[in-house]
Design goal:
Number of domains: 1
Strand content: 35-45%
Shape: globular
CATH topology: Thiol Ester Dehydrase, Chain A
Number of strands: 6
CATH superfamily: Hotdog Thioesterase
CATH class: Alpha Beta
Number of helices: 3
Length: 139
């Protein structure tokens, strides 16, 4: 098994236990070492009082992509610092795709940038996350 196949196995293990990502309706599209691409469809219960997707939903989608990218080397990694910038609103039935790219892979920390696009390839949000690597195995 090569390193990207193993990364996929680790994410499959995470998804089995990740009830929140399941509730969001997240589908894993692609996993490579230090990288993830996932998607979800915005449902009506995800909309806020302004008629757009709640920011916490976009953040959560980004956070899941972050988690899948920073943990897929089988080194339990937790968020140390995160931030998000919202560019455009999302609406009911929008399909959001979050792509996490590793910017730095250190021994004890990692830095990731997650871009969230809608089905029309419009940039919805940019998320940046720094993780702490615990050294514990996931599988």
């Amino acid at each position: 098994m090569d390193k990207n196949q193993f990364a996929q196995e680790v994410v499959n293990h995470l998804m089995e236990k990740d009830l929140f990502s399941k509730w969001l309706g997240i589908e894993v599209l692609e996993i490579r070492e230090g990288y993830s691409k996932i998607k979800m469809t915005v449902r009506k219960e995800m909309i806020n009082a302004f008629g757009i997707v709640h920011g916490g939903i976009t953040f959560s989608l980004s956070d899941s992509a972050f988690a899948f990218a920073c943990n897929n080397r089988n080194n339990l990694s937790v968020a140390l610092d995160t931030s998000i910038n919202f560019m455009k609103p999302a609406h009911v039935d929008d399909v959001l795709i979050a792509e996490a790219k590793e910017m730095h892979n250190g021994k004890s920390t990692g830095l990731y940038q997650i871009s969230v696009f809608n089905q029309n390839d419009h940039l919805i949000a940019l998320f940046k996350g720094t993780c702490f690597r615990t050294g514990k195995k996931l599988v």
